TrEMBL record:
Biological source species: Caldicellulosiruptor bescii (Anaerocellum thermophilum)
Keywords in alphabetical order: Hydrolase
Pfam families: Glyco_hydro_88
Protein name as it appears in the record: Unsaturated rhamnogalacturonyl hydrolase
Keyword Hydrolase: yes
PANTHER family cross-referenced by the UniProt entry: UNSATURATED RHAMNOGALACTURONAN HYDROLASE (EUROFUNG)
Coiled-coil boundaries: none
SUPFAM superfamilies: Six-hairpin glycosidases
A molecular function (GO) term: hydrolase activity
Domain of life: Bacteria
Length: 373
């Protein structure tokens, strides 16, 4: 605990946030989900520090996309891509802070996508229209926390229905992707069993990708922020979260304290410690402990993990700016060229420095580690 306290006092969240603002003054290329991960991290740091520059940064970048009438530049509803919901969390943050009508309208537009988004037979959102009949762990993070927060802020008249739908997404994804042996969850599930990557019996993809598990862990701990205490399925969601964290901790590298790209193959040839997943697990642990979902017995694992991230992945340049190394650039299933979900596939994707998915996850993790003290 002493090491964790010392690291928290270093305020790595602020150091990385200031580095990100310097390196990425504008996040406006596309309406893309990784921006939303950074914005969420900065939202927490703004709450911690009350420094207006973080609020202004989020607002400036979201205002590039959100017009006065609530329409969103570079966003297409009928693309039916669940990733495109993630930036809606920043839109809701700005609506909470400013009360401006354009943010409410933009959030309502994203809610409209979810009304007609294609679903599995049981009601789970497809990951994308171009990936039919599939649920991916990533998609729960992209859609469900926004959806739940929307119910508390804007969709109060339909809140009960939304909360039930949010819970449905988490439970269905957990049920269909969980491996009974390890307790880990496979990256994706194809209800049609048509994809070459899908197991013909279970429909699951063949491997446990670190960041997919990270997305799922963050999704659940974030949904719990908004799901009413008396919701009939809250205990079920809490149980899924605790089981997931227990399974993940079994694969924490005893040497480095972090997690590998393919989490259950520590030290296997070609596998490597991966920063974004490690940061996501730290975030889920820190927030879980802070909010009472996890007991203090998880603090040791959190300390080893956060220390591992700081010493293994962080680098400071001559200007004092921080970089985050060791982030898998991207990984998916299917598509063209075809991604088969094999071990060889996951270790072949490029590794980047300062990939925004990793930077955003580090901001979120550090902000919540610091809230513990």
């Amino acid at each position: 605990m002493q090491k964790l306290k010392q690291l928290a006092k270093e305020s790595y969240s602020v150091k990385m946030a200031d580095s990100a603002l310097f390196k990425f003054p504008d996040l406006i290329d596309k309406w893309q989900y990784d921006y939303g991960v950074v914005f969420k991290g900065l939202e927490y740091i703004y709450e911690n520090t009350k420094d207006e520059k973080y609020f202004e940064y989020i607002k400036k970048n979201i205002d590039y996309f959100v017009k006065e009438d609530g329409s969103i530049k570079k966003y297409s509803l009928d693309e039916y891509n669940i990733d495109h919901i993630n930036n809606g969390k920043a839109v809701l943050f700005l609506y909470r802070k400013t009360g401006e009508e354009k943010y409410k309208k933009a959030a309502q537009l994203l809610r409209e996508q979810l009304k007609t988004h294609p679903r599995t037979v049981e009601g789970g959102f497809w990951h994308k229209k171009i990936y039919p009949h599939q649920m991916w762990l990533d998609g729960i993070y992209m859609g469900s926390p926004f959806y739940a927060e929307y119910a508390t802020l804007i969709g109060k008249d339909e809140a009960e229905e939304i909360f039930d739908d949010v819970v449905r997404q988490v439970i269905l994804c957990a049920k269909h992707t969980k491996d009974p042996v390890t307790g880990l969850h496979y990256h994706g599930w194809d209800e049609s069993r048509q994809q070459k990557w899908a197991n013909k019996i279970t429909g699951c993809s063949p491997n446990f990708w670190g960041r997919a598990l990270g997305w799922f862990a963050m999704a659940i701990v974030d949904v719990l922020d908004f799901l009413p205490q008396n919701h009939q399925s809250r205990d079920t969601i809490l149980a899924i979260f605790r089981q997931l964290m227990d399974a993940i901790l079994k694969y924490q590298d005893p040497e480095t304290g972090v997690w590998y790209q393919v989490v259950n193959y520590i030290g296997k040839n070609g596998n490597y410690p991966e920063a974004s997943a490690s940061c996501m697990f730290v975030y889920a642990l820190a927030k879980g402990i802070h909010n009472g979902y996890l007991s203090s017995k998880y603090l040791d694992a959190l300390e080893r993990a956060y220390e591992g991230i700081i010493y293994r992945f962080l680098e400071k340049d001559h200007n004092g700016h921080l970089s985050l190394n060791g982030v898998c650039m991207v990984a998916g299933l299917g598509g063209n060229p075809y991604r088969d979900g094999s071990y060889e596939y996951y270790i072949s994707e490029p590794i980047k420095t300062d990939d925004l998915k990793g930077v955003g996850a580090f901001l979120k993790a550090s902000a919540w580690v610091e809230r513990l003290f």
